[in-house]
Write a structure and sequence with these properties.
The structure is a homodimer. By secondary structure, the first copy, chain A, is of the alpha/beta class. The first copy, chain A, contains 13 helices and 14 strands. Chain A has a single domain (2-141, 146-151, 164-312), classed as Rossmann fold (3-Layer(aba) Sandwich), CATH 3.40.50.10680. Chain A has helices spanning 9-22, 45-54, 72-79, 90-104, 109-119, 147-153, 175-182, 196-204, 209-215, 236-242, 249-255, 273-276, 293-312; strands at 2-6, 26-30, 36-38, 41-43, 125-128, 135-140, 143-146, 162-166, 188-191, 220-223, 226-227, 230-231, 262-266, 282-286.
Chain lengths: 314, 314
């Protein structure tokens, strides 16, 4: 049993590799800090990227949204004066409408997500990080931006100076997460190659969660989202530079220092390995770029083997 | 200036004919008794049929929905366990989502409708009969059914024994309707060829409205929705039979007796004209079947000419 923490596209791909390997012996704990309300709908971009990816229906060209999506809804909504900056495909909207109605009726996001995953034939357990509304806020010199406005509307252009996770202080882990952590078969915790600041950090900001993960006593392994000084996708490297950090796999490892036990970086960054030893963690270089479904599985195998090695060495 | 009361497809077609003739000298007062909540969305079928028809984007094969509609939303919603009995096209959903959000934020249905009509380039003024939520309930031997469940889900199969308009008692005419009624140029009030029981009756059930229309002192003209003993579309004739009334244009005229001043029936029913005289109303036979856009305009011309004739004879 593996518990994997994931954000959007990169995290979803490794989660898919892990599911190929482990089937229902996998729980994916997904960032919901980038959730937002739009046209009266509650939209959960990371949760949906993970769900669509695990269901095998994600659009391969982008990693998000439903494959072969159509756009009649957005076209008409724009004609009627609605906002057009967030891409809402016709099939995608169905999930948002049904989920928003169920949330309004008082159902928990965790229950709704479980039902959606069941209907889409997903074997792994997909859990939102919490059922509370946590909203990532990006601090910039021009002011504070809700995450999707920074990420989509402003295309990550503003300089970031920091982050806040509004609502986090009163968020709590769900009973389903409690159960996953209590599972005797839990063998490792994996931080997927997701943005450390806006994908993994919101999850770890759920009060008490980081300590509970650490105290669980199983190896915690992170996979670098930075390869050769650049993010595979998204603004992680740009954010690092703006925060005064040289973007590199090393910087990611330093970010997680004290929390993780093992670190996987890409073969392209193997030269950094000697500089990781002083951080007090085990590290390996592996092929980590996931272009094909087989790549996802191979990286998942490397993660699981590495975690087993760390567990055996305790 | 004409005020036309309309329900769904037949009413929308005559409204379109009147708009061809009168442009912005037309106000269409639309039934909202068939509105309902579905998947958390507020859906206004008659209002949307009128809007799409006047905008020239109604699906010609059915009269309702958007022409050339696609169905990816409904397909995915069904896959996710949502209800599939109500046809929601991808473009149609955009209106429902935007309108539902605006209603939730406290905007009035009248304001939202005006904005939608403006964006769709509709010259006539389209008014919901009220901003209050009125819901038509169909009484059957098996119990009471919300209108759309009777009409769409049960395909009008249950026998009707009566109707109620829930919420009607606390509904009020809008200030926009007040203004239309106060217009010095108002020349006639037209009851479009819509179902008398579930399209026109809910409008006239808005407290005080029927009296105010009558007291306005302009000719009130109705167009029969029944031709040759059958409804052009919908369950009007079936309802009449179930209520113990022989379906005919005569029965429609008797239904409106005391309220209307003039009645237009189809040429096919010209033989009924002698039986209308005892009802104390003027009546004419005209070609009333609207298959083409020109048919709509010709019927509108007949309506306007008839109303002018009635006004001149006062």
């Amino acid at each position: 049993m593996i518990l994997a923490l994931a954000g959007g596209v990169g995290g979803a791909k490794l989660a898919d590799g892990l599911m190929q390997l482990l089937g229902d012996e996998l729980t994916v704990l997904v960032n919901t800090g980038d959730d937002f309300e739009h046209m009266g709908l509650t939209i959960c971009p990371d949760l949906d990227t993970v769900t669509y990816t695990l269901a095998g229906i994600a659009e391969p060209s982008t990693g998000w949204g439903v494959a072969g999506e159509s756009w009649a809804f957005l076209d008409q909504a724009t004609r009627l004066g609605g906002p057009s900056w967030f891409q809402l495909g016709d099939r995608d909207v169905a999930l948002h409408v049904l989920r928003s109605e169920r949330l309004r009726r008082g159902e928990r996001l965790t229950e709704i997500t479980a039902d959606v995953c069941c209907r889409l034939g997903i074997r792994a357990q997909v859990l939102p990080m919490t059922d509370a509304a946590v909203r990532t806020i990006v601090h910039t010199p021009q002011g504070k931006l809700p995450f999707q406005e920074y990420f989509v509307k402003e295309r990550c252009a503003p300089v970031v100076t920091g982050f806040a996770f509004a609502g986090s202080e009163s968020a709590a882990p769900t009973r389903e997460l409690d159960a996953a952590l209590a599972d005797r078969d839990l063998a490792a915790i994996v931080l997927c190659p997701s943005n450390p600041y806006v994908s993994i950090a919101p999850i770890l900001a759920v009060p008490g969660l980081q300590q509970r993960l650490k105290q669980r006593g199983v190896p915690i392994v992170a996979v670098s989202p930075i390869i050769g000084g650049a993010a595979v996708k998204g603004p992680a490297a740009k954010m690092m530079r703006e925060l005064g950090i040289e973007p590199s796999a090393l910087a990611v490892a330093e970010h997680y220092r004290g929390f993780i036990d093992g670190f996987l970086l890409d073969d392209a960054d193997a030269a950094l390995l000697p500089r990781l030893a002083p951080l007090g963690l085990a590290a390996r270089a592996v092929p980590s770029l996931m272009k094909t479904s087989a790549d996802r599985r191979h990286l998942a195998e490397a993660v699981v083997a590495f975690a087993a090695e760390l567990a055996a060495g305790r």
